[in-house]
């Protein structure tokens, strides 16, 4: 079968055309290897419960294919329904049920999971060997997912760039694997407000083994659990400049993770639905599939163009954050940051 033959007869696309696709034909459209998809099917089978009432649903495998196709492509929903020979309502129902099942798969298999003590030590070691910055178990940032204007409170979804969006907060390890995600807040809020609303901000110190920490940009508040750079008012010392440079290089992994996520699952570039509950479910599902692909060493570099250079630091945010941490916590965080700064090799400034 040639690369273009599969588009000639869409009536039996899932039943006859996709099974004849070779790997090099399957991956560009589903954004994962057939072997990764087979493992996904196996995991979904463990948790998927067929409907027993209402209209009959399409077969399980076709539902999974339709869902991955939807997340991987920017084809119109009408076009997807036609391609898979189902009504739009049937297609939405299939996507909803598969995405709900994905949450159960994640719960059982810990595809997105906070690292154990041993795993945290492994992550920290990789960050240190690569960047010379000690104690990192994850890089945190937020990204906007463009959406259709919601019916209710649509103004609150307009972000600072002027379009409607919801926010995705992600924390990833050295390998772009998400260890924590939080999605669905309105796009108008600040990254740090997003952080405070997430469960991540309430994780106990015991989850940060051996005085480890996350790293973030200047949108976040410095704490002992979250290292950020020194604000540059033109008076930084050489050591502070080295610290900022090394932290920015290490932090860039989360920017690359988001680029990979949106490049592989292109639906996240624009989600055309007005249901907030579906928005969060779709974003979380894409993050789970992102991790599954990485765990399978399912490379996307051949199908996704990731920017080689990411912004080392965002533009300085207005200093309008509330002091929600007590003074002694702030002092401990500053002492910790200074100790890390003093331990960095000065040649890293070059």
In short:
This protein is of the alpha/beta class and 350 residues long. It is 44% helix and 9% strand.
SSE blueprint and pairings:
Layout: H1 13-17, H2 23-30, H3 34-47, H4 60-72, H5 77-83, H6 88-109, H7 117-131, E1 136-146, E2 165-172, E3 178-186, H8 191-197, E4 213-215, E5 226-227, H9 238-264, H10 276-295, H11 327-343
Parallel strand pairs: 1-4, 4-5
Antiparallel strand pairs: 1-2, 2-3
Helix pairs in contact: 3-6, 4-6, 6-10
Q: Which runs of at least 5 residues are low in confidence (pLDDT < 50)?
A: 1-9, 306-325
From the spread of the alpha carbons, the general shape counts as elongated
Strand runs, count: 5
Q: Distance between termini? A: 53 Å
Strand content: 5-15%
In N-to-C order, the SSE pattern is HHHHHHHEEEHEEHHH
Estimated structural class: alpha/beta
Helical region count? 11
Percent of residues in helices: 40-55%
Number of domains: 2
Q: What is the C-alpha radius of gyration, as a whole number of Å?
A: 22 Å
Main β sheet profile: 5 strands, mixed
List the strand order in the largest sheet. Answer: 3-2-1-4-5
Let me know the average pLDDT.
Answer: 86
């Amino acid at each position: 079968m040639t690369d273009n033959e599969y588009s000639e007869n869409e009536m039996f696309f899932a039943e006859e055309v996709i099974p004849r696709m070779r790997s090099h034909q399957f991956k560009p459209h589903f954004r994962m290897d057939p072997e990764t998809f087979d493992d996904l099917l196996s995991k979904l089978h463990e948790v998927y419960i067929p409907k027993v009432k209402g209209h009959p649903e399409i077969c399980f495998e076709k539902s999974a294919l339709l869902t991955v196709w939807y997340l991987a492509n920017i084809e119109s929903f009408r076009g997807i329904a036609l391609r898979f020979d189902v009504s739009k309502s049937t297609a939405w129902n299939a996507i909803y049920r598969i995405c709900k099942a994905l949450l159960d798969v994640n719960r059982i298999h810990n595809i997105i999971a906070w690292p154990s003590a041993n795993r945290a030590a492994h992550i920290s070691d990789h960050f240190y060997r690569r960047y010379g910055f000690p104690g990192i178990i994850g890089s945190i940032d937020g990204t906007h997912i463009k959406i259709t204007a919601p019916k209710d409170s649509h103004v609150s979804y307009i972000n600072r760039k002027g379009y409607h969006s919801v926010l995705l907060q992600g924390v990833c390890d050295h390998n772009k694997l998400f260890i924590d995600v939080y999605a669905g807040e309105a796009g108008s809020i600040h990254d740090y407000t997003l952080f405070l609303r997430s469960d991540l901000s309430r994780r106990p110190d015991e989850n940060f083994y051996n005085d480890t920490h996350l790293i973030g940009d200047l949108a976040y508040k410095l704490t002992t659990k979250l290292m950020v750079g020194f604000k540059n008012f033109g008076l930084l010392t050489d050591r502070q400049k080295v610290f900022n440079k090394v932290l920015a290089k290490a932090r860039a992994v989360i920017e690359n993770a988001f680029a990979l996520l949106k490049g592989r699952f292109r639906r996240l570039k624009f989600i055309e639905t007005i249901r907030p509950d579906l928005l969060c479910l779709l974003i979380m599902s894409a993050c789970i599939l992102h991790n599954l692909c990485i765990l399978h060493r399912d490379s996307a570099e051949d199908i996704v163009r990731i920017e080689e250079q990411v912004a080392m630091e965002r533009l300085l945010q207005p200093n309008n954050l509330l002091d929600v941490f007590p003074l002694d916590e702030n002092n401990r965080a500053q002492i910790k940051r200074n100790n890390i700064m003093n331990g960095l090799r000065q040649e890293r400034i070059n």
